[in-house]
Amino acid sequence: MSQAWFDGARSPYFVLFAFGFLPTIGWKLGSAFIAHSIDEDSELFRFINSIASALLAGIAAEFLLHPQGALAHAPPVARFGALLIGLAAFALTRRSVFAGVLAGEAAIIVLTFAASH
Amino acid sequence: MGPAWVVAFSLFGIGGLARAAHYPLGVAIAATVGIWAGPAQAIFFVASAAKTAWPVIALSASLSSMRMLPMTIALLPLLRTPRTRLTSMVAASWFMGITVWTESLRRTPALPRDMRLPFYFGFAMTCMGVATCTTMLGYEIVSRVPVPMAAALLFLSPLYFVVALARNAKVGADWLAIALGMALAPVAMAYVGGGLDLLVLGLVAGGLAWFWGYRTRRRLAGP
Predict the structure, then answer these.
(1) pLDDT tens, B165-222?
(2) How far is B106 from chain A (nearest CA, A)?
(3) Which residue on chain A is closest to B66 by alpha carbon?
(4) I need a labelling partner for B75 at 20 to 30 A (CA). Which of A64, A83, B8, B197 fits?
(5) Which of B62, B177, B207 sits opposite A23 (nearest CB)?
(6) Same-domain check for residues B116 and B184
(7) Are A101 and B160 a contacting pair at CB < 8 A?
(8) Which domain holds residue A114?
(9) Are B104 and B120 in contact (CB under 8 A)?
């Protein structure tokens, strides 16, 4: 499987619709029809949530390892260093997401600037 | 409308990701309005730029949106009156997102029942409107600002997701899922071919973390 069967053959709008929109809308629409509540303490629900968390963390790591665009100008040590600085700020501020993001963003700007000069 | 800016801010970075993955602006906007979930959008743009197989992208985006189901089921009964039609509920479910859900769950119980759905649609549409603007803004400015600023814009989504995952982590298994997901990502990218890397990564890292949590729960509940 690769993207070759798709590339150049179909519009990016079709791709978004088929592989982005349809797979995500089902969960929302489905819930409008389900009368009874599903069990958030079931092992199946925990298992799928665990996969979803690992996937999201993995996609973040993948983008930091092989960044697109301008982030590729920041060396790997700057990308992962800024992430660690953001997490440290988050931990030091009693789990404030805002402080973590702010510190990480400041760090990536400074580190990228320093690396390109 | 403070919380509206939280969504707006997180989709600002997604606009940049869409440009970096060479999608047209219209697709970036359609993704915000149609998918309306930062994680699924980031997976879509990042994974398609990384040449992941399309069925795997679809499955990964779908898994990341699964939490919408219990969230929506928990909120919709709060918004409903005996006269609310199913079409209103279906429309309401479209606008469901983390921030919209959190704010509505916090504020609607204090409102009279017939005011809840109007509040919900007003708030959700404001969020979507502002977020659509910031998606466009992120897409347009990422190629026009100095390199450190553009890098910061693209860095926004991965940073936000990792910190937000850490914020939501409650037990050891949650932390393990995050740590394994990040640590095993380069291994999966290097050794799993055919565009299946994300799928294998999710199953192995998420599965191991779940199993660890399962054994912990079993031991605590033990004889």
Answers:
(1) 898 888 999 999 999 999 999 999 888 876 778 888 989 999 999 999 999 999 888 7
(2) 19
(3) A27
(4) B8
(5) B62
(6) no
(7) yes
(8) 67-117
(9) yes
Which ipTM score applies to this complex? 0.85
B165 interfacial to chain A (CB closer than 8 Å):
yes
Q: For the whole model, what pTM was predicted? A: 0.82
Res. B150: pLDDT tops 60:
yes
Measure Cα distances from B116 to B52, B89, B109, B159 in Å: 42, 12, 8, 34
Q: Shortest Cα distance from A1 to chain B (angstroms)?
A: 5
What the block records as the tokens of B185 is 């990502």
Compare CB distances from B46 to A32, A59, A83 and report the shortest one's residue.
Answer: A59
**A34 closest CB neighbour out of B73, B160, B207:** B73
> B69 and chain A: CB distance < 8 Å anywhere?
yes
Mean pLDDT of chain B: 89
Q: What is the pLDDT of residue B132?
A: 96
Same domain, B24 and B85: yes
CA B131, B135, B141 angle in degrees (round to 5)?
135
B112 and B89 assigned to the same domain: yes
Q: CA–CA separation, B157 vs B151, rounded Å?
A: 11
Distance of residue B110 Cα from the nearest chain A Cα, in angstroms? 23
Asked if residues B195 and B52 have their Cβ atoms less than 8 Å apart, the reply is: yes
